[in-house]
Amino acid sequence: MSVLTKLLKPDIAGGPETFKLYEYSHVALAGLVPIAAFAPEGGALSKVTDLTLGVAIPVHSHVAMNAVVTDYVPKAFRGASRAGLLAAASLAAIGFLRLNVFGPGITQSVKDLWRH
């Protein structure tokens, strides 16, 4: 079964593979956010942290919102809801990648918000 099929499969929120992915992204976020807050600006650690956050945030959000779809969206609308959710998570990942590669990065962008 392809990855796309697994992501759009009905009631995927309860699947063991998806829950493991959610756990890994949770641990990554718990470790990376403090590193991002204290990493020196423009260093290699900051770049690696930004790139990892750019993957972990959309994955974590996608899996969590898939559980919300399973719990609260009627079965007739779940496929369309999951497709929209996958599109939103993909756009977020692409946006984070663009911000990290061509811009100041996630960490610096958040720090700039707090400075101004």
TrEMBL record:
<dbReference type="GO" id="GO:0006099">
    <property type="term" value="P:tricarboxylic acid cycle"/>
</dbReference>
<keyword id="KW-0812">Transmembrane</keyword>
<dbReference type="InterPro" id="IPR034804">
    <property type="entry name" value="SQR/QFR_C/D"/>
</dbReference>
<keyword id="KW-0813">Transport</keyword>
<protein>
    <recommendedName>
        <fullName>Succinate dehydrogenase [ubiquinone] cytochrome b small subunit</fullName>
    </recommendedName>
</protein>
<dbReference type="Pfam" id="PF05328">
    <property type="entry name" value="CybS"/>
</dbReference>
<keyword id="KW-1133">Transmembrane helix</keyword>
<dbReference type="GO" id="GO:0006121">
    <property type="term" value="P:mitochondrial electron transport, succinate to ubiquinone"/>
</dbReference>
<keyword id="KW-0809">Transit peptide</keyword>
<keyword id="KW-0408">Iron</keyword>
<feature type="binding site" description="axial binding residue">
    <location>
        <position position="60"/>
    </location>
    <ligand>
        <name>heme b</name>
    </ligand>
</feature>
<keyword id="KW-0479">Metal-binding</keyword>
<dbReference type="GO" id="GO:0020037">
    <property type="term" value="F:heme binding"/>
</dbReference>
<feature type="binding site">
    <location>
        <position position="72"/>
    </location>
    <ligand>
        <name>a ubiquinone</name>
    </ligand>
</feature>
<keyword id="KW-0472">Membrane</keyword>
<keyword id="KW-0496">Mitochondrion</keyword>
<dbReference type="InterPro" id="IPR007992">
    <property type="entry name" value="CybS"/>
</dbReference>
<dbReference type="GO" id="GO:0005743">
    <property type="term" value="C:mitochondrial inner membrane"/>
</dbReference>
<keyword id="KW-0999">Mitochondrion inner membrane</keyword>
<comment type="similarity">
    <text>Belongs to the CybS family.</text>
</comment>
<dbReference type="GO" id="GO:0048039">
    <property type="term" value="F:ubiquinone binding"/>
</dbReference>
<dbReference type="GO" id="GO:0046872">
    <property type="term" value="F:metal ion binding"/>
</dbReference>
